[in-house]
């Protein structure tokens, strides 16, 4: 799907939502970023097979260079996720620490926007 089209993102997001329908107990997606989480290795393999089979059945393809498989921790949508924790990425925390004290309304808005991104 050409991503230059006005509704391409929304259409693709709807497709991925339909693709993963019923898997929300162990799977989440934002646009084309899909994450699968499990406590046990065998359980993870089973869940991975389920998601991959649905992707294949929908005639979609994955880019191997953009995929991470079988990792305990991963950066996902600007957060570090894994081992039962969701944390902001270290770069974002550092950006908050290094941000100068706001002296006008525009700088305050930028700082509040940064807080909104870092703090879930």
How would you concisely characterize the structure shown here?
With 120 residues, the chain is α+β, with helices and mostly antiparallel strands.
3D architecture notes:
The protein is α+β, with helices and mostly antiparallel strands. The protein has four helices and five strands. It has helices spanning 8-19, 41-57, 90-98, 105-118; strands spanning 27-30, 33-36, 73-76, 79-82, 85-88. The strands form two sheets. A three-stranded antiparallel β-sheet has the order 3-4-5. Strands 1-2 form a two-stranded antiparallel sheet. The chain is globular.
Instruction: Output the helix-strand order.
Output: HEEHEEEHH
What is the count of β-strands? 5
**Overall pLDDT score:** 83
Oligomeric state? single chain
- Outline: globular
Provide the gyration radius in Å: 18 Å
Placed side by side, the strands forming the largest sheet appear as 3-4-5
Low-confidence stretches: none
Question: Strand share of the residues?
Answer: 15-25%
Helix content: 40-55%
SS content category: alpha+beta
Amino-to-carboxy terminus distance: 31 Å
User: Biggest sheet, in brief?
Assistant: 3 strands, antiparallel
Number of helices: 4
């Amino acid at each position: 799907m050409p991503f230059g089209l006005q509704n391409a993102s929304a259409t693709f997001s709807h497709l991925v939502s339909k693709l993963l329908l019923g898997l929300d107990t162990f799977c989440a997606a934002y646009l084309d970023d899909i994450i699968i989480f499990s406590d046990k290795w065998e359980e993870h393999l089973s869940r991975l097979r389920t998601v991959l089979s649905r992707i294949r059945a929908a005639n979609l393809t994955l880019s191997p260079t953009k995929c991470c498989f079988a990792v305990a921790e991963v950066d996902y949508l600007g957060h570090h996720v894994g081992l039962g924790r969701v944390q902001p990425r270290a770069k974002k925390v550092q950006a908050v620490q290094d941000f100068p004290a706001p002296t006008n309304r525009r700088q305050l808005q930028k700082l509040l926007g940064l807080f909104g991104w870092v703090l879930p």
